[in-house]
Amino acid sequence: MKLSTDQRAAIGSDILKRVRAHPGTSRIALSRNLKLAPSTVSNYVERLVTGGFLAESEKMDSESGRPPTALRLNPDGGQFIGVDFEARSIMATAVDFSARPLKQAHRDIQKSDSVPGIIRKIEQAILEVLPGNQERPLAIGVGVPGLVDPLKGIAVDYKYIEGWHNVALAAPLAKHFGVPVYLENTIRSMALAELWFGQGRGVRDWLCIGIRSGIGAGIVAGGQLQRGHSYQAGEIGRWRCPWPSRAAARLFANGDSAAAAPMAELQEVASARAILATWARGRAAGARKAQGPGQPTPVFADLVRAVQQNDALALQIITAAAAMLSWAVSQLSLALNPSRVILAGQLTLLGEALLGPLRQRAGELLRDCGADAPEIVNSTMGEYSGALGAAALAVHEWKPALSST
Fold this sequence. Notes:
By secondary structure, this protein is an alpha/beta fold. The chain has helices at about 5-20, 25-35, 40-50, 115-130, 170-175, 185-195, 245-255, 270-290, 300-310, 310-335, 350-370, 385-395; strands spanning about 55-60, 70-75, 80-85, 90-95, 100-110, 140-145, 145-150, 155, 165-170, 180-185, 205-210, 215-220, 225, 240, 265, 340-345, 375-380.
């Protein structure tokens, strides 16, 4: 039976994914694992080698008879682009066909930027990392903050960029660059990066909690990223959480008015944006009391230095945020029973100042429920983890065009 173009592409894609996951695999192993006839596998492998996507070499430890061949991805098979953005910045990276990072770019987002202006900055970041030989990339992946509909290619809603509602993103980018464009929630992009390259490799049930302007969770169950019925799985930033203390409520609300409010939205307390804003207000208030000169608006690196220098206000804020995050971790753990929780985003720069109280309080909350606490670790992938995950999304979703001959 003659296969359709899509069916041929799907078989080629399955072979590439298997080789990507198991470098050095053989045609015989592919036949067995993909449940395809050896002749079919050989036919498709030949086409992928001819197309420049696969390379093969003889195995040194072969038995008698024809030596088996080891299949590997050809790094020169093409490039993929990954873009990740949130309220303040855009990160882009290019990777080769074996997903090795090649080039990176960064753009700042200003509060005054319009939605079309942000899209132009995304396009500029992509242009900066495009292959230098004028070849088009094979595909582009975009990590989008907030709610996203990947099937329609629409960014649905994100509260921290004004006017960011139902933004058609995939189609304009695909038209501009002439390649397929795939969208994913930015936190799930971070989880994809951890799944394929980071602390999630080889772990079947775990969570990635991404903390930047907002907070979200990438959920991996049975080794598969979970998106939910309407692609809204992991929107934990909107959870209403109990304050760890009345003092913490007053601290984050900049006064006494919130002390009576029993709950707070998690991302308005424990996000990098909320923590930095609270520390800045506290510093400004302290300067006014001391009748000292005004201080410049701090950036997150200033907060990190303050924590390292044991600044009392900074440590108080971090401890309160850790308590709120520990509540979220305990609720997720009771619902999903992950073996590991990976923190990603700017808060990882705080190291044990955040991890220590977070682990301790989460352990206490879960022990009170008769449950075990998961391992809680920081991501080691750096600020481009979301962009790398978006590139990995493009790698995963892209399918080779294979002829019927």
